[in-house]
Write a structure and sequence with these properties.
This protein has helices at about 5-10, 10-15, 20-30, 40-50, 85-95, 110-115, 130-140, 170, 195-210, and strands at about 30-35, 55-60, 100-105, 120-125, 145-150, 155-160, 220-225, 230-235. The chain is of the alpha/beta class. It has one domain: 3-Layer(aba) Sandwich (Rossmann fold). Strands 3-2-1-4-5-6-7-8 form an 8-stranded mixed β-sheet, sandwiched between helices. It starts with a helix and ends with a strand.
């Protein structure tokens, strides 16, 4: 690290659990974020700010007005622009030491393995079961941790799957619930909720990379914003 980086990350480096060694691990780490929307926005912002050296963003969507109530990477001026392209500009402005690769593609069975293979950690910031199962299957195939987040209305969930022999996503959802669309139909979301859940996903990524604290593997964190309640469930 140069002097500018040491100053930039000073408040993080002073943590005994992180230190210079942990910061160097962040600098070398490669994280793929699948989905650059409500969850992907805070995940990408915090990982870039923390100094994760290599970020990949997978999303084939463009910015719309309906996104702006919760997707904090974007603003009114970039409506119609590819999300990953603008996200790259924002993240590089926050931290020029971070390499950001925009991948303007939809994750499919044909490209999932090749897109995920170069990365150390995969973040599931998607909004449908098809993508989640695809991410999970390839994380198992490639032996990579899957940091999952999901939101709907006032509720959100966070967990880490396929981590050091722990449970996988299919252990929680062997199949998509009948009440949910497999491909994902638009549902209402309370504006600040993805900020909470996405920030927790970013925290889990940082813990995986640095080895600080206890990773949320084998557990499911459930948050309900409407009454500010939270619980952590153990997964078998």
């Amino acid at each position: 690290m140069n002097l500018e980086e040491k100053e930039r990350y000073a408040r993080q480096i002073m943590l005994p659990e992180i230190g210079g060694a942990g910061q160097e691990k962040l600098k070398q780490a490669k994280v793929l974020i699948v989905g650059a929307g409500g969850l992907g926005s805070p995940v990408a912002l915090y990982l870039a700010a923390a100094g994760v050296g290599h970020l990949g963003l997978v999303d084939n969507d463009t910015v719309s007005l309906t996104n702006l109530q919760r997707q904090i990477l974007y603003n009114t001026d970039v409506v119609g622009k590819a999300k990953v392209t603008h996200a790259q500009e924002v993240l590089r402005a926050i931290n020029p030491h971070v390499s950001v690769l925009p991948i303007f593609e939809r994750l499919t069975e044909a490209n999932a393995e090749s897109l995920m293979q170069p990365y150390d950690v995969i973040v599931d910031a998607t909004d449908n079961f098809r993508a989640r199962y695809l991410i999970s299957q390839n994380c198992q195939k490639l032996n990579k941790p899957m940091v999952h987040g999901s939101i709907e209305e006032f509720k959100g969930m966070v967990s880490v799957f396929n981590y050091q022999g722990g449970p996988v996503y299919e252990d929680l959802f062997p199949e998509a619930p009948e009440s949910q669309s497999f491909d994902g139909e638009p549902k209402g979301v309370f504006g600040a909720l993805p900020g909470i859940i996405g920030s927790m996903q970013a925290m889990e990524v940082l813990k995986i990379i640095t080895g600080a604290g206890t990773v949320l593997a084998g557990k499911l964190f459930v948050y309900n914003a409407i009454d500010c309640s939270a619980s952590t469930l153990k997964l078998n």
